[in-house]
């Protein structure tokens, strides 16, 4: 635990200003002197909060309970090797060789109780030992972490929206699985075509996988949908799937119905016969018209509901125009298949809310999704899941920070506080790093005890301290995510933990 200043020092700082002691301006110019110092410094002071967060959720317990380790045992152990890569990603470095830049960082090395981190080649060899089995097991780690964080934050969504989409990762070598396909930014280049699913309500990565470069087929979409229940938090009772025209097929519709999921998929494969008299407007002066029909495309076992909107060609388009189909002389159309029972315009509005999925994919790419570390597909598959686990750790970290802010302001939270807390959740991970991670710290050791000290002059430190004090308070509780028993946790039996177990 970070030691706070003594009472007298704290009182002096209080008298000298909210952000710490008064100071005079320093003039820095080209002739300013520079020299070494003896202090062990780190720009990643927020890592102390990360360590406390992972201890709170018992991340090591989750990892060791679900991770299918490769046969070769590294010197540091499987957990420390994967955690090292996750730490690298958390800081913002996206490639394995970037360990060169943090090899001697005082905080990073202190977390592993080492003078320096292993050579980059050690991490390369470990990534080279990973395969699809390790990647799939990391999905269970991601799912169990999500469940615990939801419990800690008091979240109990009974209905969630899962947005499904694919993206293109261009490759420039001879990586196994690379194919030429739809690649609008690098036409003719080989690439992978991963599929990613995000939860709309929390913006978390739900599940997905690295795929070869071909367009995804109906049977593959069906297989994907049929494993969703495995990764759902125990509180969820209703799921609404949303995907573009790449995911529409009879196999996908059948899988969604049999699994009990609602769905709305963009249609690119057929032209349902909408009745001319069925077109309606929500408001009299609107240009957009809506319609619906029960229609059975060729090869489908029974008819499904198709909804559509049409816009006059001389009307400027607003919003998502990705599915402008079936153009005729006067109109352009967007058509969907769904089992939702709302009016056509409401169902289409439900679909349009998935537009944020593209932003989340873009953010995941910046967090390391586009890094292709190996020529072997299995290595890349596992690294893909490590990257997305790191992405979700940041999401969870920010969610708990916002929840902690709300909790520490009780019993009288203010609208301003609520706004700031929500900003922590909504901001990108890059902004999260500026607020919660990139805070200068000094690592000091006295009489065998290590302390991490922060500057009084950094306005962010006070917020970081409140967050870490909140984490310490929750860490001292026995399995705090079970305290209120909001709902049955799906993953506890696999970790040999009983929901009703009393912890001392």
Count of DSSP helices?
Answer: 15
The class by helix and strand makeup works out as: alpha+beta
Q: How much helix is in the residues? A: 25-40%
- Low-pLDDT parts are 14-18, 320-324, 500-504
Rg of Cα set? 26 Å
The fraction of residues assigned to DSSP E strands is 15-25%
Number of strands: 14
Terminal CA distance:
22 Å
Mean pLDDT: 87
Succession of helices and strands: HEHHHHHHEEEEEEHEHEEEEHHHHHEEH
Order the strands across the largest sheet as they lie in space.
7-6-2-8-9-12-11-10
Largest sheet: 8 strands, mixed
> Judging from the principal axes of the Cα atoms, what is the shape?
globular
Question: Topology of this protein?
Answer:
Elements: H1 7-16, E1 40-42, H2 47-56, H3 59-66, H4 77-91, H5 106-111, H6 120-128, H7 132-152, E2 159-166, E3 169-170, E4 179-180, E5 190-192, E6 195-199, E7 204-209, H8 218-225, E8 238-243, H9 250-259, E9 262-266, E10 289-295, E11 304-312, E12 331-338, H10 344-352, H11 356-369, H12 377-408, H13 415-426, H14 429-436, E13 441-446, E14 449-454, H15 460-475
Parallel strand pairs: 2-8, 8-9
Antiparallel strand pairs: 1-13, 2-6, 3-5, 4-5, 6-7, 9-12, 10-11, 11-12, 13-14
């Amino acid at each position: 635990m970070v030691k706070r200043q003594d009472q007298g020092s704290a009182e002096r700082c209080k008298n000298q200003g909210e952000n710490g002691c008064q100071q005079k301006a320093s003039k820095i110019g080209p002739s300013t002197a520079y020299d070494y110092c003896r202090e062990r410094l780190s720009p990643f002071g927020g890592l102390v909060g990360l360590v406390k967060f992972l201890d709170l959720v018992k991340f090591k317990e989750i990892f060791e309970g679900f991770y299918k380790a490769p046969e070769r045992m590294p010197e540091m152990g499987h957990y420390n090797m994967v955690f090292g890569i996750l730490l690298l990603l958390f800081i913002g470095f996206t490639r394995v060789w970037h360990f060169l830049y943090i090899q001697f960082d005082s905080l990073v090395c202190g977390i592993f109780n080492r003078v320096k981190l292993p050579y980059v080649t050690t991490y390369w060899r470990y990534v080279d030992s990973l395969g699809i089995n390790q990647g799939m097991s990391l999905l269970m780690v991601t799912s169990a972490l999500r469940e615990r964080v939801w419990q800690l934050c008091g979240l109990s969504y009974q209905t969630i929206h899962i947005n499904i989409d694919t993206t293109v990762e261009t490759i420039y070598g001879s990586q196994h699985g690379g194919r030429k396909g739809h690649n609008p930014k690098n036409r003719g280049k080989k690439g992978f075509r991963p599929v990613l699913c995000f939860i709309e309500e929390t913006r978390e990565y739900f599940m997905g996988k690295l795929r070869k470069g071909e367009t995804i087929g109906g049977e593959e979409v069906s297989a994907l949908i049929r494993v969703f229940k495995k990764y759902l938090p125990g509180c969820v009772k209703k799921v609404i799937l949303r995907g573009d025209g790449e995911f529409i097929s009879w196999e996908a519709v059948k899988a969604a119905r049999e699994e009990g999921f609602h769905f709305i998929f963009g249609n690119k494969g057929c032209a349902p016969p909408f009745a001319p008299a069925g077109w309606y407007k929500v408001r009299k002066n609107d240009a957009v018209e809506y319609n619906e029909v029960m229609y059975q495309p060729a090869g489908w076992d029974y008819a499904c509901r198709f909804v559509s909107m049409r816009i006059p060609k001389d009307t400027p388009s607003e919003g998502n125009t990705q599915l402008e189909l079936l153009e005729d002389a006067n109109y352009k159309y967007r058509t969907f298949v769904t089992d939702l029972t709302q009016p056509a315009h409401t169902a289409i509005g439900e679909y349009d809310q998935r537009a944020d999925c593209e932003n989340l994919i873009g953010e995941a790419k910046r967090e390391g999704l586009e890094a292709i570390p190996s020529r072997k597909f299995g290595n890349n598959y596992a690294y893909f899941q490590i990257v997305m686990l790191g992405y979700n750790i940041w999401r969870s970290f920010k969610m708990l920070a916002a929840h902690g802010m709300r909790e520490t302001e009780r019993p009288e939270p203010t609208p301003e506080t609520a706004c700031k807390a929500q900003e922590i959740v909504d901001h990108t991970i890059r902004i999260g790093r500026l607020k919660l991670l990139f805070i200068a710290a000094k690592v000091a050791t006295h009489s065998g005890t290590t302390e991490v000290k922060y500057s009084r002059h950094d306005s962010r430190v006070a917020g970081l301290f409140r967050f870490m004090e909140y984490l310490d308070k929750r860490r001292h509780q026995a399995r705090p995510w079970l305290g209120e028993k909001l709902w049955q946790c799906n993953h506890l039996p696999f970790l040999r933990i009983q929901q009703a177990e009393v912890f001392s």
